[in-house]
Amino acid sequence: MKVLLIEDETELRRSIRQYLQEEGHLVESANDFPSAMEKARLHAYDAMLVDITLPKGNGLDIVRALRKANNACGIIIISAKGSLDDKVLGLDLGADDYLPKPFHLPELVARLRALVRRKQAKAQDSIRVGPLRIVPDERLAEVDGTRVDLTGTEFDLLHFLAVNKGRVLSRSAILEHVWGDLAERMDRDDFLYAHIKNLRRKLAGHGCPESIKTVYGLGYRMSDPA
Amino acid sequence: MNLLQRTASYQALLAIPMVVLGTAIGYGLVRHMVTREVDEALADHATSVQQRLRATDQGLEITAPDVLVRIVPGSIAVAQFSDTVIYDSLEAEDIPWRIGRFPAMKADGGPVVLTIGRSQLETDDLVFGIALSIAAVLVLFTLGTLLLFRWLSARLWRPFHANLQAMERFRPDGPSPSLASSNVDEFAGMARALDGMMANMRRDFTAQKRFTEQAAHELRTPLAILRGRLDQLIQSSAMGEQEADVIQGMYTACERMGRTITDMLLLAKVGETGTPAEEVDWQRIIRDELALLKDPIAERGLSVQVNEGERCGIQLPPMQAQLLVSNLLRNAVQHNVLGGSLAISTKQDDITVRNTGPALSVDPATLFDRFAKGDPSSSSAGLGLSMVKEIVERNGLHVAYREKDGLHEIFISRVDPTHASNTAAVTTPQ
User: Fold this and answer.
1) Number of C-beta neighbours around residue A59 at 10 A
2) What's the CA gap between B190 and B169, in Å, rounded?
3) In this prediction, does ipTM exceed 0.85?
4) Whole-angstrom Cα distance, residue B62 to residue B83?
5) Are B335 and B355 in contact (CB under 8 A)?
């Protein structure tokens, strides 16, 4: 997937670019308003990550200009402003998603994937991990064609791990993805552990080989069974 | 009692004894004068009877309904006057009389005592009439003065009351209330001083709010970099247990910082002008927030009880109502014990949250302060209850903490609990 990253903070730009490149995406970046406008006009991208506060301009104007020119590329606004007004305005202007800083990179990966799935109308888009198949739009998980009965939380967990297959996900990234704002206020580590345990048990019950690994002290990683 | 009522009551307090005293003095004076007149008339009468006695030896004894003359032998040195009451069989009532006893001499030189009396029925009526008139005039005059003063004060204090109302509506984030001008120097001076103070408050408030917002925004970008780098770092395969521990510590610190920034922004937001307070469906908000907390409640095995005593009439802007309930319930869930309980009840004028939990480790008086934390190592920033306080105070409500039957209780009310009853006063837990 070809992604344009518009972000003026050098360190953050490098960090996002490297992470997405390792995911196999093609990432181009722009660090100010004019260069971002130029790249957005000249090249076609599958998705754009747009920061609102930019040198020499406002990221929302880029969104407005692109949509006016009937550019249908997926747009995610990444902003430190985090005010509801900015979010509403951004989405009104035609942005597809809004991710407030500070976010976890696996979260960005999950949002990008969801965005492209919506854009390309791949309703049957599914993620495969060994014999396990996950269909996000139907919230369905199956092993060799047999449905695995999962609670909402367990499905969210499994989906997040699968979208970031092969990556180590920190507990804080997982908690924030699954429980959102609530995770911020409650000490939930034990709870996460219990859910992972249930998830493993259910997958194993369907004969799915162990695919969720505990990375000591840090979090979890899902990978294709060897 | 307002200023006008208080002034009027002081004036009335002064006026009542003056009316009573004035009437009494007036009555006494008239009474005294009339008595002297009557005594003079009796003496005149006596003189004419004495002359006739000496000339003719014939004393005219009279017994009429209003006059009485008697001559009896005897002697007194000087004239004596007295009041008495004589029963009148005709009128069938006691009649007051003024009696004078005078020394006299018959033609033959024998001493006699001349007793002359007059009925006081009519003069008494007259005196009472005059006293009543005095009282009526005094009362009317006093009432007139009171009314005049009241009207004048109301007029004079009008700019004061107008400005007082304007000040009550003042919010540092709202529009500037226009103060009534006055040609009374003191009021004009006060309006000038208030205008200056309001301008200062508004400026400080805006500056503080902007600073909080900017600080929060400026902190978020480096925090995003930090988190991103950590997310990259943990992908490294050359990670030992020790390194993992270090990184986990950094993640925790990042989360804590992120949470503090979010709360700071929310606190700044609560101070924002915006939607006015309105009727709130508290039961719906409570249900929604409890639904969000379903997992942590289950995890701690808490029993939850929601009591809707009466329809709660506390009004708030909708976002703040939700934030209030959310912070109250989260606080009650987080600072609870395994298998504990949580109860929230609403009444006409108040909302109460009761929960089990370990004994407070902070001074209850500082419980609602910013950054007050029960456990210093907790990753919570301690802004939850300060947000409750901020919302409550911003909307003219009251909040208090108390420990009752071993339960922690937070009590939000439209009426000041320290005035309403002593049971609601903030108490120190044992």
Assistant:
1) 26
2) 17
3) yes
4) 19
5) yes
The beta-strand segments (E) located in A13-115 are 26-30, 47-51, 53-54, 57-58, 74-79, 97-100
In chain B, the residue whose alpha carbon lies closest to the alpha carbon of A185 is B380
**Counting every residue, how long is chain A?**
226
CATH assignment, B185-270: 1.10.287
**Topology (CATH) of B282-424:** Heat Shock Protein 90 (3.30.565)
Query: Domain map of chain B by residue range?
Result: 3-143, 185-270, 282-424
One pLDDT digit (tens) per residue for chain A, 226 residues: 899 999 999 999 999 999 999 988 999 999 999 999 999 988 999 999 999 889 999 999 999 999 998 888 899 999 887 666 778 888 888 899 999 888 999 999 999 999 888 877 655 678 888 889 999 888 899 998 889 999 888 999 999 999 999 999 998 899 888 887 665 556 666 778 888 999 999 999 988 888 899 988 889 999 887 6
Give B-chain residues touching A179 at CB under 8 angstroms. Answer: 295
Query: Is the distance from CB of A78 to CB of A56 less than 8 angstroms?
Result: no
Q: Smallest Cβ distance to B241: which of A9, A170, A217?
A: A217
Residue B351: count other Cβ atoms within 10 Å of its Cβ.
23
Domains of chain A, CATH where assigned: 2-119 (3.40.50.2300), 127-222 (1.10.10.10)
Q: What span, in angstroms and rounded, lies between the C-alpha atoms of B390 and B323?
A: 11
- B273 half-sphere exposure, CB direction, 13 A CA radius: 11
DSSP class per residue in B294-316 = HHHHHHHT-EEEEEE-S-----B
Report chain A's terminal Cα–Cα distance, integer Å: 27
Residue B227: half-sphere exposure toward Cβ, Cα within 13 Å: 28
B384 touches A: beta carbon within 8 Å? yes
**Min Cα separation A70/chain B (Å):** 31
* CA separation for the pair B387, B323 (Å, rounded): 8
